[in-house]
Structure formats: C-alpha cells, structure tokens
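Q: Predict the bound structure with FE2/S2 (inorganic) cluster.
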Amino acid sequence: MPKVTFLPSGTEVEVSEGTNLLDAALDNNVQIDHNCGGNCACSTCHVIIDKGFESLGKMSEDEEDMLDEAENLTETSRLACQCVVTTDMIVKIPPKDSDWEDDTF
Ligand code: FES
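A: Predicted complex:
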C-alpha cells in the first residue's frame, strides 16, 4: 500500500490505492481543513505535494479555479480532496495566514 507522509507533523500513514489525500489525512487524525466537505468548492484543503506530484491526475478546471483562492500557493499546490493516492507521497500542509493573526497581538 502507498505510504503518505504529512508535514510538518511527519505523520506517516499507509492508505489503499485510490484513496484521496483528504480522506487519508482525516482517517488518520491528521487535520486538514475541508470546509466544503471534499466537493472541490473551497480552497481550505490546499496542500503542497513535496513527493509524488507527477503521479497525480491533471487538475480539473474547477480545482484550478478554487486553488487560485488559496493562500501560499506553490507550483506543486493541489486540493487534497481532489488528489488520488497511487504511490508514496510527501504532503505538506501549509500554515494559513489566519493562523498567525490570532496569537501575537
Ligand atoms: S475540501 Fe473543499 S475543495 Fe477540498
């Protein structure tokens, strides 16, 4: 079974091929926001693929549109609910800018 490592926690999970990254995380107590419930209608499940990016299918137009709204976009950004796991992957969950706002002042 493919292994997915979630950063920054370093949590490693084994998932059945065909599982999407959001389910892989949530089923293993790794928190990824998912305001629309995995329906490609928000950008809160944004993740950065450090390994295994090439294994993912082409992005749909809907995913591209939603991803445009995400904070901290990179060249290997995807929406976790739209990514099907077929191989070992390393996936970074980016900090949200709003995470920073609460603490400091
Ligand atoms: S959970 Fe909303 S797009 Fe993935």
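A: The chain has one domain: 3-96.
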